[in-house]
Specification:
The chain has 180 residues and is mainly alpha-helical. The chain has one domain (22-171): Skp domain (Protein Binding, DinI Protein, Chain A). The protein contains five helices and two strands.
Length: 180
């Protein structure tokens, strides 16, 4: 609640001070909505899903190998087939395998995030270029995003004519979904 108040206060203060220096026209859009309908963003999600499955499969193979080594160790230990030095060596091997799995899991998360950033960069650049063009055509000084990435609305009220989402989607060649 405090954040909304602070954002609103700063926006009002900024607009009040800007009026003294000239006409400011502020527009807004919902970038998240635009991204949902962009073919490039849909393709990015499919690519990321495939990449994630590939990373998960690699991790599952390593986990399966570790489970088989653990089962083998437990079986031999139960049958007293291991000398104390063999038992210690196998325990160390299992500990190392566990560390490797944890590291691979963390690396996979990092790789997935890096891949997402790599694929998202040209999409966001395309959106930004379209925003710049629409803003210039419609005479806006500023364009704000209507919501945060978590879906929290940052524009609590604004005239419908200052919402450029539809114009942005047209500029990007995205067919606008009908509101049923």
């Amino acid at each position: 609640m405090k954040i909304k108040f602070i954002v609103t206060f700063c926006l009002v203060a900024f607009m009040s001070s800007s009026i003294c220096f000239g006409q400011v026209k502020i527009g807004y859009t919902n970038i998240e909505l635009v991204l949902v309908y962009m073919p490039e963003a849909k393709q990015m999600e499919r690519t990321l899903s495939t990449y994630q499955k590939k990373l998960a499969e690699k991790l599952r193979a390593k986990e399966s190998y570790a489970k088989s080594k653990l089962a083998e160790y437990l079986e031999k230990k139960e049958k007293n087939e291991l000398s104390p030095s063999e038992e210690e060596a196998r325990e160390k091997e299992l500990i190392e395998l566990d560390k490797e799995i944890q590291k691979e899991s963390q690396d996979a998360e990092y790789d997935l995030l890096a891949k997402r950033e790599e694929l998202l960069a040209p999409i966001l650049e395309k959106v930004q270029n379209a925003i710049n063009k629409v803003a210039k055509e419609k005479g806006f000084t500023y364009i704000l995003n209507q919501t945060t990435s978590s879906g929290v609305s940052t524009i609590l009220f604004g005239p419908d004519e200052n919402d450029i989402t539809e114009a942005l989607m047209k500029e990007l060649g995205i067919s606008i979904p009908s509101s049923n």
